[in-house]
Amino acid sequence: MSISLEKYILAIITTDRTHVGGGAPIFYAKQEKELQQIAFTLEKILDGIAHEITPDTLIIVKHS
C-alpha cells in the first residue's frame, strides 16, 4: 500500500498581506494586473493550475 499526494498547493499569490499564511510560497502583488501576471508565469513554470480563492488571492495547484 502506498500513499501519494494527488493535489497540492504549490504557491499563493495575493494583493492582501493580512489574509494569507501557511507552508506554501507566498507571492505578493501590488495590484490585480500584477497578480494575474505572476499567476500566469507560475502556472507555466510549476506546471500547475491557478484557482481564484478571492478576487485578491489566487493559488497554484498541482493536479496529478
How would you describe what is shown here?
The chain is an alpha+beta fold. The protein has one domain (14-63). The chain is built from 1 helix and 4 strands, in the order ββαββ. Strands 2-1-4-3 form a 4-stranded mixed sheet, with helices on one face. The longest helix has 15 residues, at 32-46. The protein is globular and about 45 Å long. The relative contact order is 0.31.
Jot down its keywords.
64 residues; YpzH; alpha+beta; 1 helix; 38% strand; 4-stranded mixed beta sheet
Helix-strand layout with pairing:
Elements: E1 7-14, E2 26-28, H1 32-46, E3 49-54, E4 57-63
Parallel strand pairs: 1-2
Antiparallel strand pairs: 1-4, 3-4
Pfam family, one: YIEGIA_cap
Provide a short characterization of the protein structure.
This protein is an alpha+beta fold and 64 residues long. The chain has one domain (14-63).
